[in-house]
Write a structure and sequence with these properties.
It is built from twelve helices and 14 strands. With 326 residues, it is of the alpha/beta class. The protein folds into two domains: 197 residues, 3-Layer(aba) Sandwich (Rossmann fold); 95 residues, UDP-galactose 4-epimerase, domain 1. The strands form four sheets. The protein has a six-stranded parallel sheet with strand order 3-2-1-4-5-7, with helices on both faces. It has a three-stranded parallel sheet with strand order 6-8-12. A three-stranded mixed sheet has the order 9-11-13. The radius of gyration is 19 Å and the shape is globular. Bound molecules: serine (SER).
Protein backbone atom coordinates (compact mmCIF):
# COMPACT_ATOMS: atom_id res chain seq x y z
CA UNK A 1 0.00 0.00 0.00
CA UNK A 2 1.25 3.47 -0.72
CA UNK A 3 2.77 5.56 2.04
CA UNK A 4 -0.08 8.04 2.25
CA UNK A 5 -2.58 5.38 3.36
CA UNK A 6 -2.02 5.41 7.09
CA UNK A 7 -5.32 5.77 8.89
CA UNK A 8 -7.89 3.18 7.97
CA UNK A 9 -11.56 2.59 8.77
CA UNK A 10 -13.19 -0.79 8.12
CA UNK A 11 -16.98 -1.04 7.97
CA UNK A 12 -18.55 -4.46 8.51
CA UNK A 13 -15.55 -5.32 10.68
CA UNK A 14 -17.50 -7.90 12.66
CA UNK A 15 -18.43 -9.80 9.48
CA UNK A 16 -16.83 -12.80 7.80
CA UNK A 17 -14.36 -10.86 5.66
CA UNK A 18 -14.19 -7.64 7.70
CA UNK A 19 -13.02 -9.37 10.88
CA UNK A 20 -10.00 -11.02 9.22
CA UNK A 21 -9.31 -8.01 7.04
CA UNK A 22 -9.19 -5.75 10.12
CA UNK A 23 -6.69 -8.01 11.89
CA UNK A 24 -4.53 -8.25 8.73
CA UNK A 25 -4.60 -4.45 8.35
CA UNK A 26 -3.70 -3.97 12.04
CA UNK A 27 -0.77 -6.33 11.55
CA UNK A 28 0.38 -4.34 8.51
CA UNK A 29 -0.25 -0.75 9.62
CA UNK A 30 -0.35 -0.86 13.41
CA UNK A 31 -3.30 -1.58 15.71
CA UNK A 32 -4.14 2.04 16.49
CA UNK A 33 -4.21 3.01 12.82
CA UNK A 34 -7.13 0.73 11.97
CA UNK A 35 -10.59 1.68 13.24
CA UNK A 36 -12.98 -1.28 13.18
CA UNK A 37 -16.68 -0.46 12.95
CA UNK A 38 -19.75 -2.63 13.20
CA UNK A 39 -23.49 -2.47 13.60
CA UNK A 40 -25.07 -4.07 16.66
CA UNK A 41 -23.27 -7.46 16.57
CA UNK A 42 -20.82 -7.67 19.46
CA UNK A 43 -17.21 -7.81 18.19
CA UNK A 44 -14.88 -10.62 19.23
CA UNK A 45 -12.43 -10.08 22.09
CA UNK A 46 -9.58 -10.18 19.57
CA UNK A 47 -11.09 -7.36 17.54
CA UNK A 48 -12.06 -5.30 20.56
CA UNK A 49 -8.79 -5.60 22.44
CA UNK A 50 -6.39 -5.16 19.52
CA UNK A 51 -7.48 -1.65 18.48
CA UNK A 52 -10.25 0.96 18.29
CA UNK A 53 -13.85 -0.11 17.68
CA UNK A 54 -17.03 1.95 17.17
CA UNK A 55 -20.66 1.08 16.44
CA UNK A 56 -22.08 2.87 13.37
CA UNK A 57 -24.93 2.57 10.86
CA UNK A 58 -23.55 2.97 7.32
CA UNK A 59 -26.94 4.02 5.98
CA UNK A 60 -26.88 7.03 8.36
CA UNK A 61 -23.90 9.18 7.59
CA UNK A 62 -24.20 11.18 10.79
CA UNK A 63 -23.29 8.01 12.74
CA UNK A 64 -19.78 7.85 11.26
CA UNK A 65 -18.93 11.22 9.74
CA UNK A 66 -17.37 12.61 12.92
CA UNK A 67 -15.36 9.41 13.38
CA UNK A 68 -13.58 10.09 10.09
CA UNK A 69 -12.37 13.39 11.56
CA UNK A 70 -11.76 12.06 15.05
CA UNK A 71 -9.55 9.21 13.85
CA UNK A 72 -8.10 11.25 10.91
CA UNK A 73 -9.17 8.49 8.50
CA UNK A 74 -7.71 8.60 4.97
CA UNK A 75 -8.75 5.17 3.68
CA UNK A 76 -11.97 3.16 4.01
CA UNK A 77 -12.61 -0.54 3.38
CA UNK A 78 -16.39 -0.68 3.09
CA UNK A 79 -17.21 -4.30 3.90
CA UNK A 80 -20.67 -4.01 5.40
CA UNK A 81 -23.55 -5.40 3.34
CA UNK A 82 -26.68 -7.52 3.57
CA UNK A 83 -25.95 -10.65 1.50
CA UNK A 84 -28.10 -12.47 -1.07
CA UNK A 85 -30.30 -14.79 1.01
CA UNK A 86 -30.82 -12.27 3.83
CA UNK A 87 -31.58 -9.66 1.18
CA UNK A 88 -34.43 -11.76 -0.25
CA UNK A 89 -35.94 -11.99 3.23
CA UNK A 90 -35.76 -8.22 3.69
CA UNK A 91 -35.24 -6.44 0.34
CA UNK A 92 -35.94 -2.96 1.75
CA UNK A 93 -33.28 -3.33 4.44
CA UNK A 94 -30.87 -4.72 1.83
CA UNK A 95 -31.41 -1.67 -0.38
CA UNK A 96 -31.07 0.71 2.56
CA UNK A 97 -27.85 -0.77 3.98
CA UNK A 98 -26.14 -1.58 0.67
CA UNK A 99 -27.17 1.43 -1.43
CA UNK A 100 -27.31 4.22 1.12
CA UNK A 101 -24.22 2.78 2.79
CA UNK A 102 -22.22 2.83 -0.45
CA UNK A 103 -23.48 6.25 -1.42
CA UNK A 104 -22.64 7.65 2.05
CA UNK A 105 -19.12 6.22 1.96
CA UNK A 106 -18.53 7.72 -1.50
CA UNK A 107 -19.83 11.12 -0.38
CA UNK A 108 -17.61 10.94 2.70
CA UNK A 109 -14.65 10.16 0.41
CA UNK A 110 -15.33 13.36 -1.55
CA UNK A 111 -15.99 15.60 1.46
CA UNK A 112 -13.07 14.34 3.56
CA UNK A 113 -10.74 14.05 0.54
CA UNK A 114 -9.94 10.44 1.33
CA UNK A 115 -6.89 8.93 -0.33
CA UNK A 116 -8.53 5.63 -1.29
CA UNK A 117 -11.66 3.53 -0.83
CA UNK A 118 -12.38 -0.17 -1.30
CA UNK A 119 -15.97 -1.16 -2.08
CA UNK A 120 -16.45 -4.81 -3.01
CA UNK A 121 -18.97 -6.21 -5.46
CA UNK A 122 -19.97 -9.85 -5.90
CA UNK A 123 -20.75 -12.64 -8.36
CA UNK A 124 -24.32 -11.70 -7.42
CA UNK A 125 -23.98 -8.83 -9.93
CA UNK A 126 -24.62 -11.41 -12.66
CA UNK A 127 -27.97 -12.97 -13.54
CA UNK A 128 -29.55 -15.76 -15.58
CA UNK A 129 -29.02 -13.93 -18.90
CA UNK A 130 -25.24 -13.77 -18.23
CA UNK A 131 -23.06 -16.52 -19.81
CA UNK A 132 -22.59 -18.93 -16.88
CA UNK A 133 -19.30 -20.52 -17.92
CA UNK A 134 -16.13 -18.46 -17.80
CA UNK A 135 -18.26 -15.37 -17.27
CA UNK A 136 -16.47 -12.38 -18.86
CA UNK A 137 -15.68 -9.23 -16.87
CA UNK A 138 -17.79 -7.01 -19.09
CA UNK A 139 -21.08 -8.76 -19.77
CA UNK A 140 -24.83 -8.68 -19.14
CA UNK A 141 -25.62 -7.52 -15.58
CA UNK A 142 -29.26 -8.26 -14.88
CA UNK A 143 -29.32 -9.79 -11.39
CA UNK A 144 -32.58 -11.09 -9.97
CA UNK A 145 -31.78 -10.65 -6.26
CA UNK A 146 -31.99 -7.35 -4.38
CA UNK A 147 -28.40 -7.94 -3.24
CA UNK A 148 -27.32 -8.23 -6.90
CA UNK A 149 -29.29 -5.10 -7.83
CA UNK A 150 -27.46 -3.12 -5.12
CA UNK A 151 -24.10 -4.54 -6.21
CA UNK A 152 -24.58 -3.53 -9.87
CA UNK A 153 -25.84 -0.09 -8.85
CA UNK A 154 -22.88 0.18 -6.46
CA UNK A 155 -20.39 -0.65 -9.23
CA UNK A 156 -21.94 2.01 -11.47
CA UNK A 157 -21.97 4.56 -8.65
CA UNK A 158 -18.27 3.93 -7.98
CA UNK A 159 -17.43 4.50 -11.64
CA UNK A 160 -19.49 7.69 -11.54
CA UNK A 161 -17.56 8.99 -8.51
CA UNK A 162 -14.24 8.16 -10.18
CA UNK A 163 -15.16 10.17 -13.24
CA UNK A 164 -17.17 12.97 -11.70
CA UNK A 165 -15.35 13.55 -8.39
CA UNK A 166 -11.95 11.93 -8.93
CA UNK A 167 -12.49 9.49 -6.06
CA UNK A 168 -9.95 6.67 -5.96
CA UNK A 169 -12.30 3.75 -5.38
CA UNK A 170 -11.58 0.12 -6.23
CA UNK A 171 -13.35 -3.17 -5.75
CA UNK A 172 -13.66 -6.71 -7.01
CA UNK A 173 -16.54 -9.11 -7.45
CA UNK A 174 -15.85 -11.60 -4.68
CA UNK A 175 -16.99 -15.17 -5.32
CA UNK A 176 -18.12 -17.31 -2.35
CA UNK A 177 -15.55 -16.86 0.42
CA UNK A 178 -14.50 -19.83 2.56
CA UNK A 179 -12.97 -19.22 5.99
CA UNK A 180 -12.82 -20.50 9.57
CA UNK A 181 -12.55 -17.41 11.83
CA UNK A 182 -15.96 -15.76 11.48
CA UNK A 183 -18.97 -17.57 10.03
CA UNK A 184 -20.66 -15.96 7.03
CA UNK A 185 -24.27 -14.88 7.44
CA UNK A 186 -27.15 -14.64 5.00
CA UNK A 187 -25.34 -15.74 1.83
CA UNK A 188 -26.05 -18.40 -0.78
CA UNK A 189 -22.46 -19.66 -0.74
CA UNK A 190 -22.50 -20.10 3.08
CA UNK A 191 -22.99 -23.88 2.67
CA UNK A 192 -19.34 -24.15 1.59
CA UNK A 193 -18.27 -23.00 5.06
CA UNK A 194 -20.92 -24.82 7.12
CA UNK A 195 -20.08 -28.14 5.42
CA UNK A 196 -16.53 -28.05 6.89
CA UNK A 197 -17.69 -27.36 10.45
CA UNK A 198 -20.34 -30.10 10.26
CA UNK A 199 -17.91 -32.58 8.69
CA UNK A 200 -15.58 -32.16 11.65
CA UNK A 201 -18.25 -31.90 14.34
CA UNK A 202 -21.03 -34.35 13.35
CA UNK A 203 -19.67 -36.09 10.23
CA UNK A 204 -22.90 -35.29 8.41
CA UNK A 205 -24.36 -32.26 6.65
CA UNK A 206 -27.64 -31.36 4.97
CA UNK A 207 -26.90 -29.01 2.09
CA UNK A 208 -29.40 -26.34 1.05
CA UNK A 209 -28.19 -26.50 -2.57
CA UNK A 210 -28.37 -29.38 -5.07
CA UNK A 211 -25.40 -31.71 -5.41
CA UNK A 212 -24.62 -30.42 -8.91
CA UNK A 213 -24.73 -26.70 -7.99
CA UNK A 214 -21.43 -25.26 -9.15
CA UNK A 215 -20.26 -21.83 -8.02
CA UNK A 216 -17.01 -19.83 -8.09
CA UNK A 217 -15.24 -19.75 -4.70
CA UNK A 218 -12.12 -18.47 -2.95
CA UNK A 219 -10.26 -19.21 0.30
CA UNK A 220 -9.85 -16.32 2.77
CA UNK A 221 -6.06 -15.89 2.31
CA UNK A 222 -6.69 -15.30 -1.41
CA UNK A 223 -9.58 -12.96 -0.60
CA UNK A 224 -7.26 -10.83 1.54
CA UNK A 225 -4.53 -11.02 -1.08
CA UNK A 226 -6.91 -9.87 -3.84
CA UNK A 227 -8.09 -6.99 -1.64
CA UNK A 228 -4.57 -5.82 -0.77
CA UNK A 229 -3.18 -6.28 -4.28
CA UNK A 230 -5.99 -4.28 -5.84
CA UNK A 231 -5.59 -1.53 -3.22
CA UNK A 232 -1.87 -1.31 -3.99
CA UNK A 233 -2.29 -1.21 -7.78
CA UNK A 234 -1.37 1.90 -9.75
CA UNK A 235 -4.76 3.60 -10.19
CA UNK A 236 -3.72 5.21 -13.47
CA UNK A 237 -3.18 1.75 -14.99
CA UNK A 238 -6.65 0.46 -14.06
CA UNK A 239 -9.22 0.36 -16.84
CA UNK A 240 -11.86 -1.08 -14.51
CA UNK A 241 -12.45 0.24 -10.99
CA UNK A 242 -14.96 -1.50 -8.73
CA UNK A 243 -16.06 -4.37 -10.94
CA UNK A 244 -13.10 -6.73 -11.30
CA UNK A 245 -13.94 -10.41 -11.69
CA UNK A 246 -11.74 -12.50 -9.37
CA UNK A 247 -11.83 -16.23 -8.80
CA UNK A 248 -9.71 -19.05 -7.44
CA UNK A 249 -11.72 -22.25 -7.96
CA UNK A 250 -15.13 -23.57 -8.99
CA UNK A 251 -16.75 -26.68 -7.59
CA UNK A 252 -20.16 -28.26 -7.14
CA UNK A 253 -21.51 -29.10 -3.68
CA UNK A 254 -20.97 -32.78 -4.53
CA UNK A 255 -17.36 -32.22 -5.53
CA UNK A 256 -16.66 -30.37 -2.28
CA UNK A 257 -18.24 -33.21 -0.29
CA UNK A 258 -16.09 -35.75 -2.19
CA UNK A 259 -12.94 -33.74 -1.44
CA UNK A 260 -13.80 -33.64 2.29
CA UNK A 261 -14.50 -37.41 2.21
CA UNK A 262 -10.90 -37.98 1.14
CA UNK A 263 -9.99 -36.83 4.68
CA UNK A 264 -13.12 -37.99 6.57
CA UNK A 265 -14.36 -41.13 4.74
CA UNK A 266 -17.44 -41.56 6.99
CA UNK A 267 -18.73 -38.05 6.14
CA UNK A 268 -22.31 -38.13 4.77
CA UNK A 269 -24.12 -35.36 2.90
CA UNK A 270 -27.84 -35.03 2.13
CA UNK A 271 -29.25 -32.46 -0.29
CA UNK A 272 -32.41 -30.51 0.49
CA UNK A 273 -32.46 -27.44 -1.77
CA UNK A 274 -34.42 -24.43 -0.48
CA UNK A 275 -35.07 -20.91 -1.85
CA UNK A 276 -31.33 -20.33 -2.18
CA UNK A 277 -31.19 -22.84 -5.05
CA UNK A 278 -32.84 -20.34 -7.41
CA UNK A 279 -30.25 -17.72 -6.41
CA UNK A 280 -27.37 -20.13 -7.06
CA UNK A 281 -28.90 -21.13 -10.41
CA UNK A 282 -28.88 -17.48 -11.50
CA UNK A 283 -25.13 -17.04 -10.81
CA UNK A 284 -22.07 -18.05 -12.88
CA UNK A 285 -20.49 -21.49 -12.50
CA UNK A 286 -17.03 -20.19 -13.35
CA UNK A 287 -15.44 -16.79 -13.82
CA UNK A 288 -12.97 -15.28 -16.27
CA UNK A 289 -10.68 -12.98 -14.26
CA UNK A 290 -8.31 -11.99 -17.06
CA UNK A 291 -8.87 -8.25 -16.48
CA UNK A 292 -7.72 -8.56 -12.83
CA UNK A 293 -4.73 -10.65 -13.90
CA UNK A 294 -3.74 -8.14 -16.59
CA UNK A 295 -4.49 -4.85 -14.83
CA UNK A 296 -3.09 -5.59 -11.34
CA UNK A 297 -1.44 -9.00 -11.49
CA UNK A 298 -4.10 -11.09 -9.70
CA UNK A 299 -3.16 -14.73 -9.09
CA UNK A 300 -4.72 -17.04 -6.48
CA UNK A 301 -2.72 -19.47 -4.29
CA UNK A 302 -5.41 -21.94 -3.17
CA UNK A 303 -7.29 -24.54 -5.21
CA UNK A 304 -9.91 -26.98 -3.87
CA UNK A 305 -7.36 -29.55 -2.66
CA UNK A 306 -5.15 -27.08 -0.80
CA UNK A 307 -8.04 -25.14 0.69
CA UNK A 308 -9.75 -28.32 1.96
CA UNK A 309 -6.54 -29.60 3.57
CA UNK A 310 -6.01 -26.27 5.31
CA UNK A 311 -9.62 -25.82 6.50
CA UNK A 312 -9.86 -29.36 7.89
CA UNK A 313 -6.44 -29.11 9.53
CA UNK A 314 -7.44 -26.00 11.48
CA UNK A 315 -10.96 -27.17 12.38
CA UNK A 316 -9.84 -30.66 13.42
CA UNK A 317 -7.31 -29.17 15.85
CA UNK A 318 -9.97 -26.89 17.32
CA UNK A 319 -12.41 -29.79 17.63
CA UNK A 320 -9.84 -31.85 19.54
CA UNK A 321 -9.07 -28.89 21.80
CA UNK A 322 -12.80 -28.32 22.44
CA UNK A 323 -12.69 -24.86 20.84
CA UNK A 324 -14.60 -25.43 17.59
CA UNK A 325 -17.42 -23.10 18.74
CA UNK A 326 -19.98 -24.17 16.20
N1 LIG B 1 -21.31 -14.90 -0.64
C1 LIG B 1 -22.30 -14.02 -1.20
C2 LIG B 1 -23.66 -14.58 -1.08
O1 LIG B 1 -23.77 -15.78 -1.13
C3 LIG B 1 -21.99 -13.75 -2.64
O2 LIG B 1 -21.42 -12.50 -2.75
O3 LIG B 1 -24.59 -13.87 -0.98
Amino acid sequence: MSAEMKRIMVTGAVGQIGSELTMALREKYGNDNVLATGHKTQPSKTLLESGPFEFINVSKRETFDDLIKKYRIDTIYHMSAILSAAGEKNPKLCWDVNMNGTSNILDAAVDHKLVRVFIPSSIAAFGPETPRLNTPNDTILKPKTMYGVTKVAGELLCDYYVKRFNVDVRGCRYPGIISYETLPGGGTTDYAVAIFFEAVKTKSYTCFLREDSRLPMMYMPDCLKATFDLMEADFSKLKHHSDFNVTAMSFSAGELAAEIKKHIPEFRVAYEPDFRQAIADSWPQSIDDTAAREEWGWKPDYDLTRMTEDMLGVLQKRFEAGTLNY
